[in-house]
Amino acid sequence: MAQNKVLSLTNNDDDSKIGNIATQAKSVTASDTTNIDKIKDKINSIKTSYQSQRPTVDWSQYDDLVYKEYTAPTQSELEATANKNLEDYKQSSIDKILLDYESDKKDLQANLDDNETALVSGIEKSNYNARANTESLQQKAISQGIERSSIVANNVDNIEDERIENIQKLKSDYQSALDSLTLKQNIIETEKELALEKFDISYASKLNTEINNLKKQSANIEAEIADYNAAIDKRKQEIQEQFDKDNATVIKNLEDSMERDIAIETFNILKTLPKTEAQAIVRDPEIAEALGDWLSIISIWLRDY
Description:
Layout: H1 33-53, H2 75-85, H3 87-144, H4 150-246, H5 248-270, H6 275-282, H7 285-291, H8 294-303
Helix pairs in contact: 1-5, 2-4, 3-4
């Protein structure tokens, strides 16, 4: 009890007359703040001094009590990781679309080349046949002595007409094939673009799924680390509580000495102040708490001050 303290600040030991200043409602005026700060500085200085004397746990012997740290990735980091994870899939998918396109394009070009070759070859063949037939006809007409015959001339004209007709047909067939292949070229170009657009849509969905999976993984890691660190906190608390229990007597003696020194320093300042100011100062919750049991003794002194 307060009456058993070594320090005596009053001759009045009547407990029934001790007021609980800590619960009084009067506020400290602006003019009192300097002295309040002075007392609080003294209190903090005394607490710091005793804190350095207080026995503490030697945590260096507990090598396993190490907290784990984890910083969850940001949204942009998650997106970057997801894109990297899907990089091979994305590239191989696009490569396949472009490979199929290039294959179709190559086949198309081969058809174009074949048709052009067929046209040139057909024209050359028509020209050759026409020349050969004309020369054969003329040689036969000479041998028969009718080279100037109108029949021979008509037959030569017919050969030429047939040549022109064949060439026109070859060119017409070539143009039809060219038109068909041009249309097919447009189709494969469109198919390529559609395939790329379709892949972009499917990739966006796959990317979103991958990001969500990474978020879940990150959340799981956070939860695991939180549980691990909570276990560390619990273990450290148990160690601290056992340490405080083992050193309870030493700690109690230090706390009693600290409260006594705080009371003495506070009293030395209060006795230099007017009564009303001194009473207002001890109403400060921080000062009242620091005085502990000594608050009652100082309250008695202030009552008769």
